[in-house]
Amino acid sequence: MKMKKKLSIGSLGALALTLSSIAPASAQSVQSQTLQNLNLRTGPGTSYSIILTIKKGAVVEVVESSKNWTLVKYNNSIGYVSSNYLKNSSINNKPSENEDLPSNSLKLMECTTGNLNVRKGPSTSDSIIGKLDKTDRVYVSYNTSNGWTRIKYANGYGYVSSKYLKDINEDTTVNLTMQCNVDSLNIRKGPASTESVLGRLKYKDKVNVVMNLSNGWSKINFNGGYAYVNTKYISNTVSTPSSPKFMKCNTDVLNIRSEPSKSEKIIGKLKKGEKVEIVYHLNSGWTRIKFNTSYGYVSSAYLI
Fold first, then answer.
1. Most buried one in 27, 77, 107, 194, CB count within 10 A?
2. Which portions of this protein are annotated as coiled-coil regions (predicted)?
3. Residue 130: exposed, middle, or buried by beta-carbon count in 10 A (0-12, 13-18, 19+)?
4. Does domain 9-91 have CATH number 3.30.1330.30?
5. What is the tens place of the pLDDT at every residue in 250-269?
6. Right CATH number for 107-167 from 3.40.640.10, 2.30.30.40, 1.10.238.10, 3.10.200.10?
């Protein structure tokens, strides 16, 4: 009878060395999905012992890939799976910090329920890293085959149950005069951050908005024609205190975000009772505050 191979201490050391040498090489995380129930093994071959069985449709992180076998991370385990039964799902290309909107390859969707858990991975056993409220809009990276959706969230990405997201199908004609609510906002030729920049709006500049698009952009009148700006950076009104005004945080911990949205990255936190200087209030329920040597946004509901 053929004996199954097991990892020796030396082999484990070699595997650990391989992982430590690979991990820092790239900030990108290549992920794949299993096409069927797939054995995770201690080595690259069917003669190696089985660590566990990964279910069909599960998402794994690829560490190193070859023609026949792929070294992957799954939950807290690392091992080899047959390359023939993996489907490439996504490369985690985080949008550039210089972009004023996530890549137009990301689809905008809306949350249909309150208090929806955002998890670290595509499973209810994965840790909760945040929550979405009803009508919150998020950018979707991809859907897994086991009912989860990967979304852009805070400083990176998270997963939510796909059944609580819906498509945003309608463009809305508005014909309203609105104001820029950030220091500088790019005016672009088309409704995507990859389109060429035609000009810029400054804080409190007014524009006539013709239509709000379902992908998070607004069509505006510009130089006798039309152009586009990111919808979340324009508001009906921008309320600015007549003199420096300070308010207090009235919750235990309040996230300070880079932009006025729960999906934007967290740049700091306020503690209960901590005072902040108010720059202005947005009618979307966010307040711009002075933070360190720059600015940030907090939920207006938690300031008194």
1. 107
2. none
3. middle
4. no
5. 989 999 998 888 878 899 99
6. 2.30.30.40
Please name the residue that has the structure tokens 């360190």. 292
**Residues composing the chain:** 304
Q: Distance between CA 35 and CA 59 in Å, rounded?
A: 10
- How far is residue 14's CA from residue 150's CA, in Å, rounded to a whole number? 33
pLDDT, tens digit, for every residue of 123-170?
Answer: 888 888 888 887 777 878 777 767 888 888 776 788 899 999 987 766
Given a cut of 70, whether residue 45 has pLDDT beyond it is: yes
User: Could you tell me if 44 and 91 are in contact, meaning their C-beta atoms sit under 8 angstroms apart?
Assistant: no
Among the listed residues 60, 88, 77, 78, the one whose alpha carbon sits nearest the alpha carbon of residue 18: 78
Nearest 5°: CA angle at 103, between 100 and 109? 100
**8 residue type, one letter:** S
For the chain, domain boundaries: 9-91, 107-167, 172-236, 239-302
Q: What letters, b where the CB count within 10 A reaches 16 and e where it falls short, cover 38-48?
A: bbbbbbbeeeb
pLDDT (tens digit per residue) in 189-235: 988 888 899 999 988 888 999 888 877 888 999 999 999 998 888 87
CA distance 183 to 161: 36
Phi, psi of 104 (to 5 degrees): -70, 0
Q: C-alpha angle with apex 89: 85 to 93, nearest 5 degrees?
A: 145
